[in-house]
Design goal:
The chain is mainly beta and 185 residues long. It is built from 1 helix and 10 strands. Strands 1-2-3-8-7 form a 5-stranded antiparallel β-sheet, with no helix packed on it. A 5-stranded antiparallel β-sheet has the order 6-5-4-9-10, with no helix packed on it. About 5% of the residues have low confidence. The structure holds protoporphyrin IX containing FE. The site of protoporphyrin IX containing FE has 19 residues, from strand 4, strand 9 and strand 10.
């Protein structure tokens, strides 16, 4: 009897953790992410889940070109740790870990500035007029071109997307927000 109970609890535990796992596969499933915010009437949705010492993020957007999220700028874009996603209609996906050196860029890749590419995994898909770009990263990468992402409390971010796939092309839309990170789930 005790053994059956233990087995049932184990199965329940597996089911609960599976429901909370993020698959970095370019698809957002119901319940996959813990938190979400929407900008520009849904033109740019940001979803995230903190799992242990990692963060999983997804961007769902109607952008024709790149999408990007920037962490903790000092002013406008300056000193912001940025992650760019390029999701091609052909299926090709690229991700760039970057850092904006000035208020209006430029934002070279961390690797071009002596830092490292801290993106642990990424994936993306286009469907109809929308795209999904997902990535994961350590909350604290130890790289000086990465901000430490807090698991809870307020965190300032900027977001942007472009009509172009050119890394140096300006955004068609951009904005900023203070996220309530919400803790680990
Ligand atoms: C090559 C890429 C980029 C260029 C050339 C660029 C350039 C600029 C310029 C000139 C402005 C001043 C306002 C304006 O003219 O609209 C600006 C504002 C801004 N940018 Fe960028 N930017 C780039 C990438 C990014 C990225 C990747 C992000 C976010 C992850 C971002 C976030 C912002 C934000 C939040 C503002 C303020 C917008 C506002 O207050 O309306 N930018 N950018």
């Amino acid at each position: 009897m005790k053994r059956n109970l233990a087995a049932a609890l184990l199965l329940l535990g597996i089911a609960v953790s599976a429901a909370h796992a993020v698959d970095v596969d370019g698809k957002i499933l119901p319940g996959e992410y813990a938190r979400e915010v929407s900008f520009d009437k849904g033109s740019f949705r940001l979803l995230w889940r903190i799992a242990g010492d990692k963060v999983f993020m997804a961007i769902d957007s109607d952008a024709k070109g790149w999408v990007a999220i920037g962490f903790e700028p000092t002013r406008i874009m300056a000193n912001s740790d940025m992650i760019f996603g390029f999701v091609e209609t052909s299926g090709g996906v690229r991700a760039v870990d970057a850092w904006s050196t000035g208020m209006f860029g430029p934002h070279p890749a961390d690797t071009a500035q002596g830092g490292k590419d801290s993106i642990l995994s990424f994936a993306g898909l286009r469907s109809g007029n929308r795209l999904v770009f997902e990535f994961s990263r350590a909350l604290d990468t130890g790289d000086k071109f990465d901000k430490i992402i807090p698991a809870a409390g307020t965190f300032k971010i900027i977001w942007a997307h472009s009509q172009s796939m050119d890394f140096n092309a300006k955004h068609s839309k951009a904005g900023s927000a203070a996220l309530d990170m919400g803790g680990s789930y």
